[in-house]
Amino acid sequence: MGQTERTTFLTQGGWSDHREPGWLEIDLVAHCGGRMQGPFLWTLVATDIATGWSESLPILVRDGAVVLTALQLIRRQLPFPLRGIDADNDPVFMNSLMEAWCDRPGHQIVLTRSRAYQSNDQAWVEQKNGMLVRRVVGYQRLEGLEAAQVLGELYGALRLFTNLFQPSFKLKSSERDGGRIKRQHHPPRTPLQRLLAIGVLSEATAEHWRELQRRSDPVALLTTIRRCQGQLAVLASGEQGSALQASRTDRDLAAENRSLEVFLGGLQTLWQTNQPRRRKPKPRTGKRTRPDPFAADVERIEQWLQAEPQLQAKALLERLIRHNPDHYGARHLRTLQRRLRGYRLQWIENEMATLVADRPSGLEDAQSGEKPVLPGVN
Q1: By the number of CB atoms within 10 A of the CB, which of 81, 109, 163, 285 ranks highest?
Q2: 216 in helix, strand or coil?
Q3: Is the Cα torsion angle 87, 88, 92, 93 positive or negative in sign?
Q4: CA atoms within 13 A of residue 173's CA, in its CB half-sphere
Q5: Quick check: 23 and 50 in contact, CB under 8 A?
Q6: What are the chain's domains?
């Protein structure tokens, strides 16, 4: 694997500049249709952590040299310099060719890998795998050069639509409150808006992308995406798909156009309906929902604990079973453990309150000029 730092996993928090664009996560998505035998297409997905900028390219053969060539093409398409690459432990990523390319003079690209069996190490690109590949292309099997060409055309339109026109939420902070996780998100922005707000682009580069956004038509891009989806469906289904495509009537085409118009008309307010909902936490009443199994023997249990505070829940339950074998059993052990924990916490609080009440406040010692004597402190 070469140098030591290449085999040491660096988490995204370990990348000191991960808030700047240029730190990518990459992954491969298989278009195998649920059957890994034989040749089929792959998609190389790369997503930037800071901005959400994503690029996708079809791969004909799952080979390290082919993947490296596709990654070089992605690097040329990026509007920002490539600073780091994080991939999984696939040999098509972790090889001498990739390492030599990253270490080439003028590149100095940081190459890291995820930990084994830790799928959440690549959460950003895994999310894009579902949004950009599975939701758009699906799970059908794609083979051959023709399908690769159609897939490349689809990704060409999709990269412009998602990076220039499609806003998305980005996590701002998350806080755990007991069993709940409270998440706050930044206002929805497109990857281009985030990139321009960071301010790392030169004025010429920023103006180039603004001009490209002005000249691009999102409706035409969606039309291209939809046409490519239909072609991929025909190629994936074979002769049946071709016959189905040939039998389409003008009425079917008109219905598709109407549905497309309805979809496009709702794009301006679509982000509002998909905004994360904030659920109101249910108030905790503290009321018992089940009858207390120890209600009849509360005084007896307290007497036993006062006499033997070190008594464990298992030994206490054995006494209760001997006292009333028809009522108590092993099923009550967990409940008794919780009850015993609460009793001991209350006992500790009472003992601590007694100790604090017996101590001088410290104010009188300060006025008298005497230093309190503390064990172990000179």
Answers
A1: 163
A2: coil
A3: positive
A4: 2
A5: yes
A6: 4-273 (3.30.420.10), 295-368 (no CATH)
Q: Are 45 and 29 in contact (CB under 8 A)?
A: yes
**What are the tokens at 231?**
């072609």
CA atoms within a 13 Å half-sphere pointing along the CA-CB vector of 276: 15
> Taking the alpha carbons of 237, 242, 243, 244 in that order, is the dihedral positive or negative?
positive
Spell out the alpha helix ranges (H) of the chain.
Answer: 4-7, 64-77, 96-102, 123-128, 144-160, 191-198, 203-215, 218-237, 239-246, 250-265, 267-273, 298-307, 313-323, 333-358, 363-368
Copy the structure tokens of residue 318: 């054995």
